[in-house]
Design a protein that fits this description.
With 389 residues, this protein is α/β, with parallel strands linked by helices. The protein is built from twelve helices and twelve strands. α6 links the parallel β5 (148-152) and β6 (179-183). The longest helix is centred in the C-terminal third of the chain and has 24 residues, at 262-285. The radius of gyration is 21 Å and the shape is globular. The N and C termini lie far apart (44 Å). This is Cysteine desulfurase IscS. Pfam families: Aminotran_5 (PF00266). Belongs to the class-V pyridoxal-phosphate-dependent aminotransferase family. NifS/IscS subfamily. It comes from Periweissella ghanensis.
Length: 389
Amino acid sequence: MKEVALNTGVVYLDNAATTPMAPEVIDTMLTTMQSTFGNASSTHAFGRKAHMVLENARQVIARSINAKDEEIVFTSGGTESDNTAIIGTAEARQHLGKHIITSAIEHEAVLKPLAWLAEHGFEITYLPVNEAGEVSVADLKAALRDDTILVTIMMGNNEVGSHMPIREIGEVLADHQAWFHTDAVQAYGLLDIDVKRDHIDMLSTSAHKINGPKQLGFLYRRDGLVFPSYLKGGDQEEKRRAGTENIPSIAGFATAVELITPAEKANRQAKYAAFKAQVLSGLAAADIDVAVNGAIKDDTLQHVLNIWIKGVSTYVMQTNLDMAGIAISGGSACTAGSLEPSHVLTAMYGETSPRIEESLRISFGTYTTSADIDALVANIAKTVKRVLK
């Protein structure tokens, strides 16, 4: 993978929010923009050329999760994919029941459509999580009912990096009527995903989390699952998602996926685990009192590290780091502007825990360096000592 240059003096450690596009992706998109402007639904030569790019990308992406080409539906990103899977399932299967199971720490793109469904007569069960941010398979089994039509559990959490027992959940649901959806937006590109092995019926992703373009993702929908198109309009994506496909971005998405070979996935996880250790050992050496939110385990999303910096508010720390040219987050970027506390940390530790107002999310990416980590540690230590003094 080519190196990418960020602005001088800026340390970017908010990769769970978004990632810079890989140079190879930009090259692919630029070439495609210049050479392939046709509408993939047109039957003339220009359209056929665009259609070929579209289907080649679909094949690359399908193979990355052991799916069939026709099971991949391109969308505008994780939010649309989540909404399509959840609301589409509810509309199509409400005659079988109106009970849905999820976890308490899902992304807003899952929680908000579920809240909307609750207002329209559906019953939602929110599974609790432990202090590692994980749901219990036993709790899932206890919550399952004959009228459960959907289970939607994220593959990996975007705030604390916990990895849910997706394979075990899939095995539980293999003989149940409920369809199984997983939001894999943070996990795709880092974890080994096999939708057939894990009995996954639907899976959501977003290209901009893996150094691809924004406003693009895909929904894996297992062959045989039928529900109405979320968008009404043309017959694109085999009548499953209306709207002219963004061919340059889709081609770029495929390039981003091709860059993440199985070996590259393992390399990234190992590199990010080393960065976690570097942050924690550096802060310990500086005598900074911190604790990890979640767990340090081999099977977590290693690119996410959420830490409680005792005695210093998230706002103060984030502001001081920003002034020093270091970009981190206090939680999900999608809710960072909200005055509400993190629902993830609240579910893990309780609403009165000081962790909720004194925690940072640090997230590493392909272009993060050891020097970036050193700069982060030095500035955290400097801020803590100044504030607590």
